[in-house]
Design goal:
mainly alpha, 24 helices, 81% helix, elongated
Length: 516
């Protein structure tokens, strides 16, 4: 039977209990409370049970007010666990403050190494989420060292912290190392067979998929995400935050594979769940909103894309202005302004993005190459062809080394270089690069094949006009028919993969009507 007691009555009972116990019994009593509370929090955090985590905040904070009754070790353990809760509910700066205070208290006696190790792991995640990747790795390694030394059979704790370390390597784009560590994490989880071990292994599989996503192996990544989702469905409600995390990653994979409608629907579902669990300021909401904006850009809905990206940017500027991920939101927004032909605004956003990247990230960071490639596209449109060529050729070299000559990302740079040569009136090179791009897209059955097909159509329209001017009517007619055929192929792809009201479809239809 459940019943409630008024807070004032609780305080009276507590006061009576404390006054009736000896100091030694009070210490034992509080030590028992802290151990029980910690055990419960650990289980809730493993399951990311937000409905039960949030009420624990007030209990922990109330317990911390009994300063004269808590030892430094007890106080540190509570602060460490409370900091972990704040980490998960998204208040990173409050989490950081509590974890640092908790670790300071715990370090005075070093009699609770388990709490120290957990506190270090949580503080590592705070730093990871704030974009301080190197610092986070140092904290994770210290945590793992303590767990392995004092609690070698605590497979859950060791596996989770290994997973955290693997995630940090993902963030730094060291995917080979991330893959190695995450596989080790999954093996460690699989040493147990409790629900938490099974859930943990699925969580590790999610982030292993993220490593494959970063390496450009999109189908493999998608399979890992689906495997995680299947496990989560057995343990969590349909709209659990864990499901949202997988749906977002799955949407990212669909995006890279060119399944833009599916990516949009999946990521919108993810965002809907996140907004049920987290306040607007939460980092996940900022990042997922920004990525969703970029998907809308791919679909040609530039106004919706701008709205979502500016919403994301506002959250970053207000709550996470020093976070490295703001660089990607700025760059995504830059591509939208480029599509809207606001080249001055677009360049400003790309420049801001690159400045953050140069200050906070390694020089060979692949996502910096992506920003440079977009800046190269911008210089094409603004007519600065030499600068554009330098940026695009640099991007092409990096992508060919990192992903291979026949990868989707490489194809996008080849297509851009083809456009550049077309504008410079080097039709032979333009056609060579655009066709090479088209072959790669077709090899992957990627819907972005419509872009080089549209490019080839423009090229053959130009050939037709030139032939007509030279009175070579036969070749002019042939070139015109080729241009029409390329547009029809592009239109078929768009009708299959894009919404019926897509501006891309309308644009191709208008071009066809002018030629036919």
């Amino acid at each position: 039977m459940l019943f409630s007691i008024h807070r004032s009555t609780q305080d009276m009972c507590f006061s009576y209990l404390v006054n009736s116990l000896t100091s030694e019994k009070i210490n034992d009593f509080f030590h028992s409370i802290v151990l029980t509370l910690k055990s419960y929090i650990v289980d809730r955090v493993y399951k990311e049970d937000y409905s039960r985590m949030k009420p624990l905040v007030s209990h922990c904070e109330k317990l911390l007010t009994y300063t004269r009754l808590l030892t430094s070790s007890m106080k540190g353990a509570i602060e460490s666990e409370l900091g972990g809760i704040y980490l998960y509910i998204g208040d990173l700066f409050k989490a950081e403050k509590l974890l640092e205070e908790g670790l300071l208290n715990l370090s005075q006696l070093h009699d609770d190494n388990h709490s120290i190790a957990r506190g270090l792991a949580h503080l590592g995640m705070v730093n990871k989420n704030l974009g301080r990747y190197k610092k986070s790795q140092d904290l994770f390694r210290k945590s793992i060292e303590i767990f392995k030394k004092y609690y070698p059979k605590d497979h859950l704790a060791i596996a989770q912290t290994l997973g955290y370390l693997g995630i940090s390597y993902n963030e730094l784009e060291n995917y080979a190392q991330a893959k190695h560590i995450l596989e080790y994490s999954i093996i460690t989880y699989n040493k147990g067979n409790s629900d938490n071990h099974i859930i943990g292994a699925a969580w590790g599989t999610l982030h292993l998929g993220a490593a494959y996503l970063g390496m450009g192996s999109y189908e493999a990544a998608k399979n890992f995400f689906k495997k995680t989702l299947a496990t989560y469905k057995n343990y969590f409600p349909e709209n659990h935050v864990r499901t949202a995390q997988v749906l977002f990653k799955l949407g990212c994979a669909e995006h890279e594979l060119g399944n833009y409608k599916k990516a949009k629907d999946t990521i919108e579902q993810s965002l809907h769940i996140f907004t049920k669990y987290f306040p607007e300021r939460h980092l996940s909401i900022a990042y997922v909103s920004g990525y969703l904006g970029y998907i809308y850009r791919e679909l040609g809905d530039y106004e919706k894309a701008k709205e979502l990206l500016e919403y994301s940017l506002a959250i970053f500027n207000k709550h996470y202005k020093d976070h490295t991920d703001i660089a990607w939101v700025l760059a995504y927004l830059g591509t939208v302004y480029m599509d809207l032909a606001n080249y001055k605004k677009s360049k400003n956003l790309f420049d801001q993005s690159l400045m953050i990247c140069k200050e906070k990230l390694p020089e060979n960071y692949l996502r910096i190459t992506w920003v440079k490639s977009q800046l190269g596209n911008l210089y094409i449109y603004s007519g600065d062809y030499q600068i554009a060529r330098n940026l695009l050729e640099e991007s092409l070299r990096v992508y060919e080394i990192s992903y291979g000559k026949n990868h989707i990302k490489t194809a996008k740079i080849l297509r851009a270089l083809g456009v550049l040569y077309f504008l410079e009136k080097d039709m032979k090179k333009a056609e060579e690069f655009i066709r090479e791009s088209l072959v790669i897209f077709q090899q992957y059955k990627h819907p972005d094949a419509y872009i080089p097909l549209e490019g080839l159509s423009e090229l053959y329209v130009k050939k037709s006009i030139n032939a007509f001017s030279s009175k070579n009517n036969q070749f002019a007619e042939y070139s015109k028919n080729q241009a029409i055929d390329y547009l029809k192929q592009a239109l078929n792809i768009l009708k299959t993969h894009f919404p019926s009201n897509s501006p891309h479809i309308l644009r191709i239809q208008n071009k066809l009507s002018q030629l036919e």
